[in-house]
Each structure stands twice: as structure tokens, then as C-alpha cells.
Design a protein that fits this description.
- By secondary structure, this protein is mainly alpha-helical.
- The chain folds into two domains: about 170 residues, no CATH class; about 80 residues, no CATH class.
- It starts with 10 loop residues before the first helix and ends in a 6-residue tail after the last helix.
- About 65% of the residues lie in helices and about 5% in strands.
- Pfam families: CbiQ.
Length: about 270
């Protein structure tokens, strides 16, 4: 997931943060309504169009998905062998492809593999949708959103600061990794213990840097009078525009249509 704000003038950038949050939660609801991977693929494709619209670099998306390949294979195998035929409504999904153990034990079902594909598409959709939300929304807008939701100021500050500093910590991690490689540190030791031991030279400096950054941030906040008053002011107040009402109406209509397709037409199930 990308966590750095990407300035732009698209409609997504100009929408109110509350509209975008409604769209994000609407996406989650629609994604969990359908089990059929074909519907999930359609949802992911539409989300991908939004990512293409705001010009997310394709190489970064590829870099985000490649590390998930082992997880993808594991999920498909687990669901394929653990979802019993009676868990599915359609006969085609109840078909057993083969058995992993003698005596017709631990059968791999068509529906199980399809459900695994659904989980994968759902995971991809969540990653892309959350990236689109954060890339098109500034931290100031998130802070005001938390304030509108009557969230305590301390919690709001903690969440927005954590999100803001994740890219900084990632850059620190890459710098430490390159520095340790230049010193001859090897990161390809075999076994779980070996892998943990090989990454200690990264984690220790990263923790120290994190503590130093937190200390510097706290000193800067105190010097600027943070906590002196409970009244917060913003340079720009968030407000709904006509486009927000149109987009929210479309989101509600889309959610209603999804419920109709799922529960009245009984589509999107395995």
C-alpha cells in the first residue's frame, strides 16, 4: 500500500475526505458481498481504473504485489483443500478435483480454489483502494475527518503522525539495508532462526532511529506549544461541494444495487 500523498487536480483529489471514506467503506461492503471470483475481478478492475486515473506508477504496483506471491499460493492451496463440498450452493463448485491422501481423504474442491481466488482478488482490491484513498487525501484532511468524528485529539494526532512517518521509516530502512550490505552483512542465511539473526543488523538501528525521531518530534511539538489549548484550528475547513453529494448518491445506489444482485437475484455465490 502507498502512504505518501500524491498531489493532483483529479475529481478524487477534490472530493471531500468524508465522501472518500464513504466510498472506501462502500467498497469493503460490496467486496464482501460476493464470493464468485468473476465479480471480485470486476471490482478489482474498477479499482485499478481509479489507480490508473490518479497515475499510480505501475512499477510500484508490481513491486507491491510480487512479495505476495507466496501468500497467494498458500491461500489458494489452503482454501482448495479445507473448504468441503457441502459449503457451496452450486453443484459445479462442489466438484472434487482430486484427493491429497489415500482413501479419498482431503479432497480439493473447485469451489475451494475459487474461494481462494476470491480472497486474493479481495486482498488486491483492498490494497489498491486503500492506496488510492491515502494518495488522494492529505494528512490535514484526515486530521479534520477524525475531528468531525469526535475522536480525541491525542488519538487523531497519533494516527496521522504514524501514517505520516511510515514513508520516512521505510526510507531509513532502505538506507540501513544498503549501509549494512556495504559493510558485508549477509541476509540470505537459511532457516527461520538464520533469517531472524540476519535482520538484527537492520532492526536494531531502525529502532534506535525511530526513538530518536520520536524524541525530536516531541521536542518540536512542545516548542510550538502543542497541548497549550484544547481548541484546534485549521488553515482550511473541509466542506461538502455539489460533486460530493452526486458521488455519495452514486455510492449509495451502487451499494443498494449490489445488495439486490446478491440477495434478490442470488448471484455472486459459489
Amino acid at each position: 500500500m502507498f502512504i505518501e500523498y500524491l498531489p493532483g487536480e483529479t475529481l478524487l483529489h477534490r472530493l471531500d475526505v468524508r465522501t472518500k471514506m464513504l466510498g472506501f467503506f462502500g467498497f469493503i461492503i460490496i467486496s464482501f458481498l460476493f464470493q464468485d471470483p468473476k465479480y471480485q475481478l470486476l471490482i478489482v478492475s474498477l479499482t485499478g481504473l481509479l489507480a490508473f486515473w490518479i497515475k499510480i506508477p505501475l512499477q510500484k504496483i508490481r513491486g507491491m504485489l510480487i512479495p505476495l506471491i507466496p501468500i497467494i499460493i498458500s491461500i489458494i492451496l489452503i482454501t482448495g483443500f479445507t473448504f468441503a463440498p457441502e459449503r457451496f450452493d452450486h453443484v459445479s463448485s462442489q466438484t472434487i478435483l482430486f484427493y491429497a491422501l489415500p482413501g479419498e481423504k482431503l479432497g480439493a474442491t473447485v469451489g475451494g480454489f475459487m474461494m481462494g481466488s476470491t480472497f486474493i482478488f479481495r486482498l488486491f482490491g483492498m490494497m489498491i483502494a486503500s492506496s488510492v484513498l491515502i494518495l488522494t487525501t492529505s494528512m490535514d484532511d484526515f486530521t479534520q475527518f477524525f475531528q468531525k468524528m469526535k475522536m480525541p485529539v491525542e488519538v487523531s494526532m497519533m494516527l496521522t503522525t504514524a501514517i505520516r512517518f511510515i514513508p520516512t521509516l521505510d526510507k531509513k530502512r532502505r538506507q540501513i539495508l544498503e549501509a549494512q550490505r556495504a559493510r558485508g552483512t549477509k541476509f540470505n542465511e537459511k532457516g527461520i532462526i538464520g533469517s531472524i539473526r540476519s535482520y538484527i543488523p537492520i532492526m536494531v538501528p531502525l529502532f534506535i532511529n525511530s526513538i530518536m525521531m520520536a524524541n525530536s518530534l516531541s521536542m518540536a511539538m512542545l516548542n510550538r506549544g502543542y497541548g497549550l489549548t484544547r481548541t484546534w484550528t485549521s488553515m482550511r475547513e473541509i466542506a461538502f461541494a455539489p460533486r460530493d453529494y452526486w458521488v455519495m448518491s452514486f455510492i449509495v445506489l451502487l451499494i443498494t444495487l449490489s445488495f439486490f444482485v446478491r440477495f434478490r437475484l442470488h448471484l455472486g455465490v459459489l
